[in-house]
């Protein structure tokens, strides 16, 4: 009986020890079940492979996975695989297995890599001249502009040289010094000649003559060196001009303003010139003074008109009025009108001048220039001898005095307006400064002060008279 009980107890103890051992193995290896599944999958794949190829590959023995405690205790040493990319290899995409998907299935497996041959195609560049038509047009325009510049400059220089050859003897007879010297001077034969201001503009100073302080000749030619102006000149032709400016002395003429010009030019001058718009507002036709109907006369006094336009002047203008653009005589010449936007600090400087503008022929000054230059010399002598009557002279002086007073009033009004603007700006700044402060008492005092100032400004000014008792 004891033996039976002892055997039952031993059996129970063995059973308990076996169960404890199995539970411990399960706790140590949590992934044993998954390993079993992997082994089963490998066996199934191996069986399938054997059916197809009739060859059974050896199955490598499974390594027992260490327990979790051993994984934490034993240090795991891993080596990172370094991938070195060769930047110089431009065919490395051929080595990428993902680049050619499905290629390995259709091609039998071999150790050799597929070879892809890239053929080198030569680049054939054939010139097509029709593709450069825009560049060709631009090159032609540049060549035409350069050719026009060279030809036009040479043409203008030849006109200036021919003018000297024809008319310099006349200038030498009337002046002591004619022309200038220097590097940029266009001369006919000797050293003195035109001074080149531009490719189309030449100037020459003459001095050493009675009845004047000097004379400046300005030859303004067509801009033949500019292709654009040449084309515009074909559409709207303009002639070559010679501007004669004679500087008169203080005692060389009486104070008066007179202008004889073409009708269109007279209208423009009366609007632009300061002295003509002030002293000669009225334009009269030239036939009333014995001149051609194409000319207009603007004069300050009738005595000056009758004294200047004598028989010789009338005959010359009757023959060559087509070449005379204007003749302007003035003792108050100040150029074009000044801008009226701002106040002028001082009155404009006035000069005594004789201005003559001549339109030259197509050859740049031929036989028509000599009689017109003689007319200019005659006018210089005429102005020296001309004297107005006392009544006419008094009227001219009175008119100039009124103009000076009007200018002074205008300048004074402009200064007052500027002063008022400055006071207003100062008052605005003071008001902004007071409003920026937080003192209401100070603001109230400023408002009372401003109200008193406004009332005093509106109150009319009255004079107070004191009467003594008898």
From TrEMBL:
Full protein name: PAT complex subunit CCDC47
Keywords assigned by UniProt, alphabetized: Membrane, Signal, Transmembrane, Transmembrane helix
Family as reported in the entry's similarity comment: Belongs to the CCDC47 family.
Compositional bias annotation for Basic and acidic residues: 420-453
GO molecular function list: calcium ion binding
Main location: endoplasmic reticulum
GO cellular component assignments: rough endoplasmic reticulum membrane
Topology of the protein relative to the lipid bilayer: Single-pass type I membrane protein
Annotated segments matching region Disordered: 38-74, 415-470
N-terminal signal peptide: 1-20
Organism: Arctia plantaginis
Localization, UniProt: Rough endoplasmic reticulum membrane
